[in-house]
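To close the chapter, one final illustration. This time we ask the reader to focus less on the individual chains and more on the assembly as a whole: which components sit near each other, and how the overall shape emerges from the parts.
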Amino acid sequence: MHDTFVSNPSFFKLDATLKKIRNYWQKNFDARQMDITVDQWLLVENLYKHKRITHNELARLTSKDITTVSRIIELLVKKDLVERQGSTDDRRKVFVQLTPQGVNKYKEVRPLVLEMRKTGWNNLSETDYNELTRILDVIYANIP
Amino acid sequence: MHDTFVSNPSFFKLDATLKKIRNYWQKNFDARQMDITVDQWLLVENLYKHKRITHNELARLTSKDITTVSRIIELLVKKDLVERQGSTDDRRKVFVQLTPQGVNKYKEVRPLVLEMRKTGWNNLSETDYNELTRILDVIYANIP
DNA sequence: TAGCAATAGTTGTTATAGCAACTAATTTTA
DNA sequence: TAAAATTAGTTGCTATAACAACTATTGCTA
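The assembled structure is written out below.
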């Protein structure tokens, strides 16, 4: 990789693209009164998939700091979308799972998310998707 | 693009990669006592390039909200890296530029940033760089 | 030209991100 | 087995992100 390319700000492009996506998602959530943020959605999505997991596991799955997860969960609990249950065999652990309302919220938001993902991938191929995935994975692995 | 790919969380991968890069950068800044954050660096970099610009232009160049730019500039002014000058012909505008210390800071941090970019692009080719750029540009353009 | 709209920037508020310090519980080790 | 180290989670703090509301200024237009 030449210095010209190294000096080119890919970081900026990643950041700008991510912000564009995030803002687009949030605007759509707001427009349809979903009453949820993008990162709250990411946690709900993972809780739907994994049913009953600890803060720690959720943090690992979402690449979020455990403190951040702790605080987002707090907001989701306030919204009655999530409930916490202390573990009995290891009393340090706290399990988290969706409430019935949380499951409903997932089912309500999910189609909108699929739609928006489709919009983002417009004019791009399966190969493009695989390329993006591959390149991002290599970058991720390169960094200590 | 098939639904399988649409439903695959690229957003998450972008987010995770960006966080990894950001944390790596910040840890290196901290380890070498650069006394600067990643986003503060991005503004310094742009100010070095563009010499004397308004908050608004800086916001556009960095894909940041003008309120965010306003607050980061405030921090940079406190660190004596940046100075503000009210425009005379349009008194709403405030021009921003690096102080001599700001220029020094740029020259101090710059080699480290190049090094870290090189690390991130390890095992990747010029073609990969162009592919990533192309795909991100299409996604960006797809989103209203 | 008076009034209205648009623009540049700041301030207030809420959310996410990450580090440090802390509590409580569990595991390791001397 | 008692002390030390590790682990799970919370709380405090600072920074970034975005929206709304606000001031001050400038441009537009009836």
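The helical segments of chain B are 3-6, 10-31, 38-50, 55-62, 66-78, 100-120, 126-142. The mean pLDDT of chain B is 92. With these observations in hand, you are ready for the problems at the end of the chapter.
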